[in-house]
Amino acid sequence: MGWRKAVGAALSMAILTVGCSSGGMMAEKKSLYDRLGGKPAIQAVVDDFIDNVAGDTRINKRFADANIPRLKSQLVDQICEASGGPCKYSGLNMKDAHTGMKISDDEFGALVEDLVKSLDTFKVPAQEKQELLTALGGMKNDIVNR
Ligand code: HEM
Description:
By secondary structure, the chain is mainly alpha-helical. The chain is built from eight helices and no strands. The protein has helices at residues 3-23, 32-36, 38-54, 68-82, 94-98, 105-121, 126-137, 140-143. Protoporphyrin IX containing FE is lined by residues 59, 62-63, 66-67, 70-71, 74-75, 78, 91-92, 97-98, 103, 107-108, 111, 136, 139, 143.
């Protein structure tokens, strides 16, 4: 291409880039899944989170008989799907998974705290942290006091 066209193309790219990144026009189109960093990032957070739960004397006895590797992979699929990622969660729904456990409000809060610790460890930004916690908070009624 001639230099006029080349310069024109370069300028268009520059304008597009500036326009999209400064106004956050691209960010709004990106799923939470992508903004979290995709499956590897979700896996890292869930690993660390379940380690926190295992060390949390407020709730770890609950998981004494749990199949931890299976629970981790189910949580990864669940968070991946809930955040708009390409996964399919194939476990029980939250009501069926927790019925009969009589999980208290405080226990739910403890688990969320353990998750927040991991989100902070991995420096998940406030916006993404809030979106994820809102999604999980929506499950609370299916999990607590059942
Ligand atoms: C937003 C909060 C929570 C989410 C997203 C969640 C998610 C899950 C998932 C995906 C499963 C596996 C379901 C299946 O077997 O098909 C599960 C099981 C289980 N959950 Fe939760 N859960 C939450 C809160 C809690 C809390 C607060 C407790 C107790 C303190 C708890 C205790 C358990 C236990 C004991 C199991 C059975 C694990 C096993 O036997 O392998 N969960 N949960």
